Amino acid sequence: MQLDCIGPNPYYVSPMSQYTLKINNHAYRWYVLALGALTHTLVSGMPLMCMPVLFKEISQDLGLSLVQIGTVWGFGSMSGIVTGLIGGSLGDRFGTNRVLSMACLLAGLSGAFRGLSNDFITLAATAFLFGFLLPAIPPNVHKVCGIWFSGKRLGLANGVVSAGMALGFMLGSMISATLLSPLLGGWRNVLFFLGIISISMSIPWLIIKQGPDKTQSSPSIQSISVRKTFSHVIRLRSIFYFGLVMVGIGGCIQGMLGYLPLYLRDIGWSAAQADGALATFHGVSMIFTIPMALLSDRLGSRKNLLIITTIMTILGVGLLSVAHGLLVWIAVLISGISRDGFMAIFMTMIMETEGVGQHFAGTAMGMIMVYYRLAGLTTPPVGNSLAVLNAGLPFVFWAAVGCCALLGFYFVKDGEKRKISV
């Protein structure tokens, strides 16, 4: 029996309309990519990395010890352990745009609250709150890259947003203490100012498109509950090995970043020089992020490139324990070259892992970042406590922690793009 169709087919899209849609999406995705990079710069990077260079001023104002500073720096990692995981899962379930808009708003408010602190307890509490909200942003920004970019361009897209993070780290460490603090009237106003900027970034995420073609989305995947999504990802054995890599890299880098400006000031460097060293670390990282991402797209193995960069990071951080003068700058360059390029390639590698893909990317990346934050919680205060024995000993400790990443890479396999099934 043949059924006659009355009227035009509502699902028909003409070839010209398809071509126009493709062109519009091609241009629009670069806008989305720029928004993701800017979010990393203004919401994740600057408000986070302004703290190490402001710690000297904060410690003098509030009377904090070196161990207390390390504890405050680590508290942000502790609180984000759960949020990074939940934030990525919520992005998988309800959409990245909504989650990113809310995360920018709340991260801006909590970041500004740090400026209200008047002692160690309140600073630790507000740092805890800020760290609780911030981790939802990176997994969802990288997931946006997976939605709008695919194939060989995925590595480039992740490289661009990671470069945005590096730019935020560089600007936060370069201008927060030496420019913004004198200009705005102290460290409190710097935190208020950066908080307002973060809040404003919530608006663009509310109005951008959900994806290049909503008709191509997978209702069966989107309808899966957060619990089932989490259950699917946690059963992937590769997630644990990726997490071990993050323990090594996170513990090594996070501890070093919080201690370096204080260490350089204590050995006689001026505030501008000490902050400049940290800014150089992030600046060289930003310069090499996109070239590294492009190189990983062209090479046959992302894993081998990451192993090389991990070794460079370990050597650079370890060298800081005995470095003086020019050798400090060399160590900073060696350890900084691959910082954000590593993260761009690493996130791409996770998305290309069997069982992950763009549909479960937020949950997978959030789960792996839990390991990063566990390391970031414990290694700064432990490393800082070793400074009473020798000022350079914390760098040796963090370099040793970095070796955990090499152990993780032994078990990790290079990912491939595969069809995801549940």
Description:
Helix 1 packs across helix 11 and helix 6 crosses helix 15. Helices cover 78% and strands 0% of the residues. The protein is mostly helical and 422 residues long. The radius of gyration is 22 Å and the shape is globular. The protein contains 17 helices and no strands. The N terminus and C terminus are likely disordered. The protein has one domain: MFS general substrate transporter like domains (Growth Hormone, Chain: A), CATH 1.20.1250.
Number of domains: 1
Indicate the mean pLDDT: 80
CATH class: Mainly Alpha
Sequence of secondary-structure elements = HHHHHHHHHHHHHHHHH
Uncertain segments: 1-21, 214-223, 416-422
Strand content: under 5%
Shape: globular
Give short descriptive properties of this protein.
mainly alpha; 17 helices; disordered N terminus
Topology:
Layout: H1 15-62, H2 66-94, H3 96-113, H4 120-133, H5 137-148, H6 153-184, H7 187-200, H8 202-207, H9 219-222, H10 226-234, H11 237-266, H12 271-298, H13 302-319, H14 326-336, H15 339-351, H16 361-385, H17 393-411
Summarize the model shown:
The protein is an all-alpha fold and 422 residues long. It has helices spanning 15-62, 66-94, 96-113, 120-133, 137-148, 153-184, 187-200, 202-207, 219-222, 226-234, 237-266, 271-298, 302-319, 326-336, 339-351, 361-385, 393-411. 78% of the residues lie in helices and 0% in strands.
